[in-house]
Design goal:
By secondary structure, this protein is of the alpha+beta class. The chain has nine helices and 13 strands. The chain starts with 11 loop residues before the first strand and ends in a 5-residue tail after the last helix.
Length: about 325
């Protein structure tokens, strides 16, 4: 029988980490951090579980709930959520349907557009097209990977073929790992000049807005995880309440629950565009949701505790 955290405290909690996606190493760091934080609370038997395949073979018996720190792939595309639903085990983050939707940048774009949430102009390319469908500069990305894997900022026509090939190759690899059919695709978006910001939504409560100031203005994989030069600021612009409202709108439109991070680009005149939703945000030392929570006075163990309390099935 599935229950949620409105009932008694979960006694045995598995922290799921690792996995088979391109974000495995980041997931391992997130998982170790979360396991340590939950253990420090002294209320749970915390079991770190490293997954090496897209199944729950490694999950021990008697687990009352799972804290998902898998990033990308099976951990965010509804796979692990569906598997846990079938066992009646509560888990953190959105359910299977919302996870599938948010994982697909193309599907979530359509939903956000329909809900009136502003997104950058976009197009889908499924073959090595000689011409870019969006004016330069643009961003070319695989539709179902995270942590900026396979993403390119394309300034001109000369850079277009290589960027498209990388995105299609990355999506092809994702489809193989996920057991998904169909031809690989690339999402092409207009590059929105200006600032990069993000809003964590925790049970529909918005956390402080974080501004990301990356070297050269590009927040790629290295800038996210390997660079100490990236700066994280807490701005005080007048449009921040509106950004937080849009983050909640995006969260609700995609059917999310628990914790989700909503990423934005903001033009110099303050116009905001949602880039994507991350339903299993990083929990590393460089990660944005823990930074925002700390700004709000929520310690890392308390953040993990609050996320766990919203664990549920379905």
């Amino acid at each position: 029988m599935c229950y949620n955290a409105r009932m008694p405290v979960f006694k045995k909690v598995a922290v799921l980490m690792g996995g088979t996606s391109n974000e495995r190493e980041v997931s391992l760091v997130s998982g170790r951090n979360v396991a340590g934080a939950l253990a420090s609370l002294g209320r749970h038997e915390v079991v770190p579980v490293v997954l090496d395949a897209d199944d729950l073979t490694a999950l021990p018996a008697g687990v009352d709930a799972c804290f998902i720190t898998l990033h990308g792939g099976w951990g965010e595309n509804g796979g692990v959520q569906t598997a846990l639903d079938s066992r009646g085990i509560p888990y953190t983050g959105p359910g299977a349907e919302a996870s599938r939707l948010a994982m697909s940048k193309i599907a979530s774009k359509r939903v956000l557009d329909a809900a009136g949430v502003p997104t950058a102009p976009w197009a889908v390319v499924s073959d090595p097209a000689p011409e870019c469908p969006i004016p330069f500069p643009c961003v070319v990305k695989p539709p179902c990977d995270g942590s900026s894997v396979g993403i390119s900022l394309v300034q001109d026509r000369a850079s277009w073929p290589a960027a498209l090939a990388l995105a299609l190759e990355t999506d092809a690899g994702y489809r193989v790992r996920a057991g998904a059919g169909g031809a690989p695709q690339a999402l092409v978006e207009a590059f929105i000049p200006g600032r990069e910001m993000t809003v964590g939504v925790l049970g529909r409560e918005t956390l402080p807005v974080v501004e990301i100031c990356a070297p050269g203005g590009w927040y790629g994989y290295d800038e996210k995880y390997n660079s100490d030069a990236t700066r994280y600021l807490f701005p005080d612009d007048s449009f921040l309440p509106e950004m937080q409202r849009l983050a909640r709108d995006a969260f609700d439109a995609c059917g999310c629950r628990g914790v989700t991070r909503v990423d934005f680009r903001v033009t110099p005149d303050g116009k905001m565009y949602v880039l994507e939703l991350n339903t299993s945000p990083g929990m590393t030392g460089h990660s944005l949701v823990p930074k925002a929570a700390a700004k709000a006075g929520i310690s890392f163990p308390s953040l993990c505790d609050r996320i766990l309390k919203d664990a549920a099935c379905g």
